User: Fold Ribosomal RNA large subunit methyltransferase E from Arenicella chitinivorans.
Amino acid sequence: MARKGNKTGEWVRRHVNDPYVKKATSQGYRSRAVYKFKEIDDQDKLVKSGMVVVDLGCAPGGWSQYIARKFGGSVTVIGVDLLPMDPIDNVTFIQGDFQDPDILARIDEILDGRDIDLVISDMAPNITGVRSVDEAQYEGLLDSVLYFCDQRLKAGNHLLVKLFEGSAAHYYRREVKSRFKSGVVRKPGASRAKSREYYFLAKHRIAQ
Assistant:
């Protein structure tokens, strides 16, 4: 038990001293993750005025907050998460499962006939510590994101999703080849060096 406590204490100290955590706090952002998205957006020019962006698994809202702060009401941002989220100006939040038909109907109502230009997802599975279980859960999560894109992402537009090194990521990258024209890996500076996470930008969805 003491060993677990020591690990928790080390994580807390590392988190408190993290320069991106300090920067997020000083700039009024909800999480350090905002700088991961900012770096990718700066590099790839993902978000533009007039776009419709759907943020899957958005809570606590750092990515949506960044887009809303940068573009104001000129970009339509719809965030969806099972968890509650404090309101953000110029972001429409829906609490629920984005696979639920009722939630999808609410998204369609908000869209009011408009196309989705960009789907973003910084979701991660709840870790059990059992690798086979965690991999299976994450494959299911990625499947749900891809299915959402199949149904609602405008042809020619993009998906940005978080991946973790392992079989689920390999599976996803195979699947995405049949849906998008190209894909690029992004490992922003705000991602901790020892972390297995990286981001995959799937570009130019193919019309089905």
Q: What stands out?
A: The mean pLDDT is 89.
